[in-house]
Amino acid sequence: MDVGSDPSAPTTAQSAPTNGGMDRGARQTLMIAYDGSDNADRAIRYAGRFLRAQTAYVVTAWQPGELSPARLSTLSGGMQPFIDTRLEEGVDQALEEEAETINRRGVQLALEAGLAARGSLVEVESTVWGALVAAADALAVDLLVTGTRGSSGLKALLRSSVAERVLKHCHRPVFIVPAQCEKQPPVTA
Fold first, then answer.
1. What pLDDT score does 161 carry?
2. Which residue numbers delimit the UspA domain (predicted)?
3. Which regions of the chain does DSSP assign to beta strands (E)?
């Protein structure tokens, strides 16, 4: 879904540049994974400062309520309580609207950072990192930009990093902005 951008502009792999987006005469495209966190804000500012692209897709992954960890854990235990599907539709709509709001904020931040930004949502079917890698492939971007949470020690062992998984599984270059960056780059126009 296109968020906060011109609906007539291309957002699918069919309308993306051919040859993997590697036309040397054209400016390149990038995708920024955006979840509304301070670290995602920092990644946008760094992308605006250090990268130039014809288009910057700001992509927010969202997860329908039916795929929430609590819902899936009850199903995996064999317990299938009655759930009113109308309630699920309302929850999913609210979650998608929240993701749209977050995405619009990311697009605005990217525009302020000097990027030609367009917003897009991607629905999580399995994992967030998988949805982001699939979105990068579908959009045929030349570079995927993401921030990190900066977990270390036991927290890093217990939680898998989305940025780490994207780096491991993505078939294109990945620009990772670490959480512990000392300086915030200024917004440039």
1. 79
2. 28-178
3. 2-3, 29-33, 55-62, 117-123, 143-147, 174-177
